[in-house]
Amino acid sequence: MLHFIINPKANRGKIKKKVKTIEKLLTEREIEYAIHYTTAKGVATELATQFSKEPDSTVVAVGGDGTVNEVLNGLNVENAKFGIIPSGSGNDFIAAAGIPTDAEKALDLILYGQAKPTDFMVCGGVRGMNIIGTGIDVDILKRCKTFKILKGKLQYLVSLIISLIKFKFYKFFIEKDGEKQEKEGLIVAVGNGSQFGGGIKMCPEAVIDDGQLDFVVAGKLKKSKIPGAFIKLMQGKILEQDFTTFERRERVKIEFDKPVTIQIDGELYENIDFDVSIVKGGINLFRP
Fold first, then answer.
1. Domain-by-domain residue ranges, the chain?
2. pLDDT tens per residue, range 61-80
3. CATH number among 3.40.50.10330, 3.50.50.60, 3.20.20.70, 3.30.1330.10, domain 2-113
Protein backbone atom coordinates (compact mmCIF):
# COMPACT_ATOMS: atom_id res chain seq x y z
CA MET A 1 0.00 0.00 0.00
CA LEU A 2 1.21 3.48 -0.88
CA HIS A 3 0.75 6.08 1.83
CA PHE A 4 1.45 9.72 0.91
CA ILE A 5 2.14 12.05 3.83
CA ILE A 6 1.69 15.60 2.60
CA ASN A 7 2.56 18.93 4.16
CA PRO A 8 -0.11 21.24 2.66
CA LYS A 9 1.94 24.34 3.56
CA ALA A 10 5.07 23.20 1.74
CA ASN A 11 6.56 25.75 -0.64
CA ARG A 12 4.02 28.36 0.49
CA GLY A 13 1.05 26.22 -0.51
CA LYS A 14 2.23 25.63 -4.08
CA ILE A 15 2.18 21.91 -3.34
CA LYS A 16 -1.54 21.67 -4.19
CA LYS A 17 -0.85 21.51 -7.92
CA LYS A 18 1.69 18.74 -7.38
CA VAL A 19 -0.77 16.72 -5.30
CA LYS A 20 -3.37 16.93 -8.09
CA THR A 21 -0.77 15.59 -10.52
CA ILE A 22 0.04 12.69 -8.21
CA GLU A 23 -3.63 11.77 -7.72
CA LYS A 24 -4.36 11.98 -11.44
CA LEU A 25 -1.44 9.70 -12.33
CA LEU A 26 -2.27 7.13 -9.65
CA THR A 27 -5.94 7.04 -10.65
CA GLU A 28 -5.08 6.61 -14.34
CA ARG A 29 -2.75 3.74 -13.51
CA GLU A 30 -5.29 2.12 -11.14
CA ILE A 31 -2.86 2.05 -8.24
CA GLU A 32 -4.19 1.78 -4.70
CA TYR A 33 -3.09 4.65 -2.49
CA ALA A 34 -4.03 6.81 0.47
CA ILE A 35 -3.29 10.48 1.08
CA HIS A 36 -2.79 11.94 4.54
CA TYR A 37 -2.32 15.64 5.28
CA THR A 38 -0.34 16.98 8.20
CA THR A 39 -2.03 19.53 10.44
CA ALA A 40 0.77 20.45 12.83
CA LYS A 41 4.42 19.81 13.63
CA GLY A 42 5.01 16.17 14.54
CA VAL A 43 1.93 14.80 12.77
CA ALA A 44 4.01 13.45 9.87
CA THR A 45 6.03 11.40 12.37
CA GLU A 46 2.87 9.98 13.94
CA LEU A 47 1.41 9.08 10.55
CA ALA A 48 4.64 7.45 9.41
CA THR A 49 4.73 5.34 12.59
CA GLN A 50 1.17 4.21 12.01
CA PHE A 51 1.34 3.32 8.34
CA SER A 52 4.85 1.86 8.18
CA LYS A 53 3.73 -1.01 10.42
CA GLU A 54 1.62 -2.43 7.60
CA PRO A 55 3.12 -5.37 5.68
CA ASP A 56 4.83 -4.36 2.42
CA SER A 57 4.08 -0.68 2.95
CA THR A 58 5.63 2.29 1.19
CA VAL A 59 5.49 5.66 2.91
CA VAL A 60 6.06 8.72 0.73
CA ALA A 61 6.97 12.15 2.08
CA VAL A 62 5.54 14.96 -0.06
CA GLY A 63 7.05 18.23 1.11
CA GLY A 64 10.40 19.78 1.89
CA ASP A 65 13.36 18.65 3.97
CA GLY A 66 11.39 19.18 7.18
CA THR A 67 8.64 16.81 6.07
CA VAL A 68 11.22 14.25 4.96
CA ASN A 69 12.86 14.47 8.39
CA GLU A 70 9.57 14.08 10.27
CA VAL A 71 8.56 11.03 8.23
CA LEU A 72 12.00 9.48 8.65
CA ASN A 73 11.71 9.80 12.43
CA GLY A 74 8.46 7.85 12.52
CA LEU A 75 9.28 5.22 9.93
CA ASN A 76 9.61 1.55 10.77
CA VAL A 77 12.82 1.25 8.77
CA GLU A 78 12.96 -2.54 9.02
CA ASN A 79 9.55 -2.97 7.45
CA ALA A 80 8.62 -0.05 5.18
CA LYS A 81 10.12 1.44 2.05
CA PHE A 82 10.60 5.20 1.86
CA GLY A 83 9.75 7.47 -1.05
CA ILE A 84 10.19 11.22 -1.52
CA ILE A 85 8.38 13.57 -3.86
CA PRO A 86 10.22 16.88 -3.36
CA SER A 87 7.90 19.81 -2.79
CA GLY A 88 9.78 22.26 -0.58
CA SER A 89 11.64 25.47 -1.29
CA GLY A 90 15.10 24.02 -0.58
CA ASN A 91 14.90 20.27 -1.29
CA ASP A 92 18.51 19.83 -0.22
CA PHE A 93 18.64 16.11 0.54
CA ILE A 94 17.28 15.04 -2.84
CA ALA A 95 20.29 16.66 -4.52
CA ALA A 96 22.51 14.04 -2.90
CA ALA A 97 19.99 11.25 -3.50
CA GLY A 98 19.48 12.13 -7.18
CA ILE A 99 15.69 12.20 -6.81
CA PRO A 100 14.05 14.34 -9.54
CA THR A 101 12.09 17.44 -8.55
CA ASP A 102 9.45 16.73 -11.21
CA ALA A 103 6.42 15.07 -9.54
CA GLU A 104 5.75 12.54 -12.31
CA LYS A 105 9.40 11.47 -12.54
CA ALA A 106 9.69 11.15 -8.77
CA LEU A 107 6.48 9.11 -8.66
CA ASP A 108 7.66 6.82 -11.48
CA LEU A 109 10.81 6.18 -9.46
CA ILE A 110 8.65 4.97 -6.58
CA LEU A 111 6.23 2.95 -8.72
CA TYR A 112 8.70 1.29 -11.06
CA GLY A 113 12.12 1.69 -9.48
CA GLN A 114 13.98 -0.09 -6.72
CA ALA A 115 14.27 0.94 -3.07
CA LYS A 116 17.99 0.95 -2.30
CA PRO A 117 19.74 0.67 1.08
CA THR A 118 20.63 4.20 2.15
CA ASP A 119 22.46 5.54 5.19
CA PHE A 120 20.92 7.82 7.75
CA MET A 121 22.25 9.48 10.91
CA VAL A 122 21.23 9.50 14.56
CA CYS A 123 21.95 12.36 16.97
CA GLY A 124 20.59 12.28 20.52
CA GLY A 125 17.96 9.74 19.46
CA VAL A 126 16.81 11.90 16.52
CA ARG A 127 17.29 10.67 12.95
CA GLY A 128 18.66 12.81 10.16
CA MET A 129 19.05 12.18 6.42
CA ASN A 130 20.98 15.23 5.29
CA ILE A 131 23.20 17.42 7.52
CA ILE A 132 23.49 17.79 11.28
CA GLY A 133 25.36 20.77 12.65
CA THR A 134 25.68 23.82 14.81
CA GLY A 135 27.28 27.23 14.55
CA ILE A 136 26.40 29.95 12.11
CA ASP A 137 23.94 27.67 10.30
CA VAL A 138 21.80 27.50 13.44
CA ASP A 139 22.08 31.27 13.89
CA ILE A 140 20.83 31.66 10.31
CA LEU A 141 17.91 29.28 10.79
CA LYS A 142 16.81 31.13 13.92
CA ARG A 143 16.85 34.41 12.02
CA CYS A 144 14.88 32.83 9.15
CA LYS A 145 12.08 31.97 11.56
CA THR A 146 11.72 35.65 12.52
CA PHE A 147 11.05 36.80 8.93
CA LYS A 148 7.39 37.13 7.99
CA ILE A 149 7.76 38.48 4.44
CA LEU A 150 10.90 36.99 2.93
CA LYS A 151 10.73 33.30 1.99
CA GLY A 152 12.93 30.56 0.54
CA LYS A 153 16.47 31.21 -0.61
CA LEU A 154 16.20 35.01 -0.28
CA GLN A 155 15.20 34.61 3.35
CA TYR A 156 18.21 32.37 3.96
CA LEU A 157 20.61 34.72 2.16
CA VAL A 158 19.52 37.81 4.10
CA SER A 159 19.70 35.87 7.37
CA LEU A 160 23.17 34.67 6.48
CA ILE A 161 24.45 38.20 5.82
CA ILE A 162 23.14 39.41 9.19
CA SER A 163 24.64 36.39 10.93
CA LEU A 164 28.03 36.97 9.33
CA ILE A 165 28.08 40.45 10.86
CA LYS A 166 26.92 39.48 14.34
CA PHE A 167 28.11 35.90 14.85
CA LYS A 168 30.41 34.90 17.72
CA PHE A 169 32.63 31.84 17.25
CA TYR A 170 31.86 28.64 19.14
CA LYS A 171 34.38 26.93 21.42
CA PHE A 172 34.15 23.14 21.41
CA PHE A 173 35.99 19.91 22.13
CA ILE A 174 36.20 17.11 19.56
CA GLU A 175 36.57 13.60 20.92
CA LYS A 176 38.99 11.40 18.97
CA ASP A 177 40.92 8.28 20.00
CA GLY A 178 40.08 8.87 23.65
CA GLU A 179 41.39 12.43 23.61
CA LYS A 180 39.70 15.82 23.32
CA GLN A 181 40.87 18.47 20.87
CA GLU A 182 39.91 22.06 21.67
CA LYS A 183 38.81 24.27 18.76
CA GLU A 184 36.93 27.43 17.90
CA GLY A 185 34.90 27.66 14.78
CA LEU A 186 32.29 29.20 12.55
CA ILE A 187 30.41 25.98 11.89
CA VAL A 188 30.51 22.28 12.68
CA ALA A 189 28.71 20.01 10.22
CA VAL A 190 28.25 16.27 9.88
CA GLY A 191 26.90 15.25 6.51
CA ASN A 192 25.23 12.28 4.94
CA GLY A 193 23.90 14.63 2.27
CA SER A 194 26.00 17.32 0.63
CA GLN A 195 24.18 20.66 0.93
CA PHE A 196 21.83 22.79 2.99
CA GLY A 197 20.13 26.19 2.80
CA GLY A 198 18.83 25.59 -0.71
CA GLY A 199 22.13 24.66 -2.33
CA ILE A 200 25.01 25.63 -0.03
CA LYS A 201 27.51 22.77 -0.35
CA MET A 202 28.79 22.33 3.18
CA CYS A 203 29.73 18.66 2.70
CA PRO A 204 30.35 18.56 -1.07
CA GLU A 205 31.91 15.09 -1.15
CA ALA A 206 29.30 13.30 0.98
CA VAL A 207 27.84 10.05 -0.37
CA ILE A 208 24.58 8.69 1.04
CA ASP A 209 25.49 5.01 0.89
CA ASP A 210 29.21 4.87 1.76
CA GLY A 211 28.70 4.10 5.45
CA GLN A 212 30.62 7.21 6.48
CA LEU A 213 29.90 10.63 7.96
CA ASP A 214 31.54 13.63 6.32
CA PHE A 215 32.78 15.73 9.24
CA VAL A 216 33.54 19.34 8.30
CA VAL A 217 34.71 22.12 10.62
CA ALA A 218 35.02 25.69 9.37
CA GLY A 219 37.41 27.05 11.99
CA LYS A 220 37.99 30.50 13.40
CA LEU A 221 39.13 33.17 10.96
CA LYS A 222 39.22 36.95 10.80
CA LYS A 223 35.78 38.47 10.33
CA SER A 224 37.12 40.42 7.36
CA LYS A 225 37.73 37.09 5.62
CA ILE A 226 34.29 35.63 6.29
CA PRO A 227 32.61 37.10 3.14
CA GLY A 228 35.30 35.52 0.97
CA ALA A 229 34.88 32.26 2.84
CA PHE A 230 31.16 32.40 2.16
CA ILE A 231 31.80 32.81 -1.58
CA LYS A 232 34.00 29.72 -1.53
CA LEU A 233 31.28 27.86 0.34
CA MET A 234 28.70 28.83 -2.29
CA GLN A 235 31.10 27.61 -4.98
CA GLY A 236 31.41 24.23 -3.29
CA LYS A 237 35.06 24.88 -2.42
CA ILE A 238 34.85 24.97 1.38
CA LEU A 239 37.09 21.90 1.74
CA GLU A 240 39.90 23.67 -0.12
CA GLN A 241 40.22 26.45 2.49
CA ASP A 242 43.02 26.48 5.04
CA PHE A 243 40.61 27.22 7.91
CA THR A 244 38.58 24.06 7.12
CA THR A 245 39.22 20.53 8.38
CA PHE A 246 37.57 17.48 6.87
CA GLU A 247 37.56 13.80 7.67
CA ARG A 248 35.32 10.77 7.40
CA ARG A 249 34.12 8.92 10.47
CA GLU A 250 31.40 6.55 11.62
CA ARG A 251 30.80 8.62 14.75
CA VAL A 252 31.35 12.27 15.69
CA LYS A 253 31.11 13.37 19.31
CA ILE A 254 31.58 17.00 20.34
CA GLU A 255 31.24 18.88 23.62
CA PHE A 256 30.69 22.65 23.82
CA ASP A 257 31.68 25.13 26.48
CA LYS A 258 28.05 26.28 26.71
CA PRO A 259 24.66 24.88 25.64
CA VAL A 260 24.05 25.00 21.89
CA THR A 261 21.14 24.49 19.54
CA ILE A 262 21.63 21.66 17.05
CA GLN A 263 20.03 21.61 13.61
CA ILE A 264 19.05 18.27 12.13
CA ASP A 265 17.96 18.58 8.50
CA GLY A 266 17.00 22.19 9.22
CA GLU A 267 14.96 21.38 12.34
CA LEU A 268 16.22 22.94 15.59
CA TYR A 269 16.76 20.91 18.75
CA GLU A 270 17.67 21.99 22.28
CA ASN A 271 19.12 19.92 25.11
CA ILE A 272 20.50 17.03 23.07
CA ASP A 273 24.12 15.90 22.90
CA PHE A 274 26.11 16.42 19.73
CA ASP A 275 26.85 12.72 19.33
CA VAL A 276 26.24 11.63 15.74
CA SER A 277 26.51 8.10 14.39
CA ILE A 278 25.82 6.57 10.99
CA VAL A 279 23.31 3.78 10.40
CA LYS A 280 24.72 2.01 7.38
CA GLY A 281 22.13 1.14 4.75
CA GLY A 282 19.52 1.65 7.44
CA ILE A 283 16.63 2.62 5.22
CA ASN A 284 15.31 1.42 1.87
CA LEU A 285 14.87 4.59 -0.18
CA PHE A 286 13.55 4.89 -3.73
CA ARG A 287 16.30 6.63 -5.68
CA PRO A 288 18.11 6.22 -9.01
1. 2-113, 131-279
2. 999 899 999 999 999 999 99
3. 3.40.50.10330
